[in-house]
Design brief:
- The chain has 231 residues and is mainly beta.
- Helix content is 9%, strand content 53%.
- The protein contains one helix and 16 strands.
- It has a four-stranded antiparallel sheet, with no helix packed on it.
């Protein structure tokens, strides 16, 4: 074999090896956007946004796991393998209850079989308007059987979203009772334990309003009636 033929064969072989190395044989997760900022909403509104991603690698991509920062954020995503060049989606849903008067930021971390990614973060961010200033946020009835156990919650309507509470408080258990009265532009919700038995109960008080923006206000109830330890 002539020397020039050997050189030619070696050049072809080297080129093939180099080309093989350049071919992408791994999946790559690429989001079109990683942040969604929503316009100001009233507390209680659910924010839903879909983030679109593409597999820009050369092998099938698969989402293994998604972790969100708190229980108020739920996720839905494209399952199964996403071929090279195809797109998938991750949808985040944020419940704004409890975030009134705050700017909220919630993250989700996407874990895939992309070897170059240790987890891609996407986030929802925005301002949540306060419907009412409620202090404390929950009713707590802690005490001993036979004691007078009461809890008082103050509800102050926002100036931007004025409302009136209509009707009587709606409760689901007979372990306690509730009443509400208007005083100086605010509402005073009073809860009193009724049970004489030891035990724990959980419930929700529902207050009806005349506001189309938020027809109901829900306040959690935690009751813990137990015998006092001897002093």
């Amino acid at each position: 074999m002539k020397a020039c033929s050997v050189i030619f064969i070696l050049l072809i072989t080297f080129t093939q090896i180099s080309f093989a190395k350049d071919v992408d044989t791994t999946p790559t997760l690429t989001f079109k956007e990683t942040e969604y900022r929503f316009e100001k909403v009233l507390e209680g509104v659910k924010i839903v946004h879909t983030f679109v991603f593409e597999n820009t690698g050369g092998a099938p991509l698969k989402i293994n796991e998604i972790k969100s920062t708190c229980g108020c954020t739920s996720t839905n995503y494209t399952e199964g393998e996403i071929a090279s060049g195809d797109q998938g989606e991750v949808t985040l849903e944020l419940d704004t209850n409890g975030y009134g008067g705050e700017e909220v930021t919630q993250y989700a971390t996407i874990y895939t079989n992309d070897p170059g990614s240790k987890g891609e973060k996407i986030k929802i961010i925005g301002e949540v308007a306060l419907f009412a200033d409620i202090k404390p946020k929950a009713i707590k009835l802690f005490g001993a059987p036979g004691e007078k156990v009461r809890s008082v919650v103050e509800i102050v309507p926002s100036k931007d979203y004025p409302f009136k509470i209509v009707g009587e408080p709606e409760i689901g258990k007979d372990s306690y009772r509730c009443s509400v009265e208007e005083k100086d532009g605010k509402y005073i919700l009073t809860a009193e334990n009724l049970t004489t038995k030891k035990g724990i109960y959980l419930d929700t008080v529902v207050l009806k309003t005349n506001s189309p923006n938020k027809p109901e206000i829900k306040i959690s109830v935690f009751g813990n009636i137990k015998t006092k330890k001897p002093s």
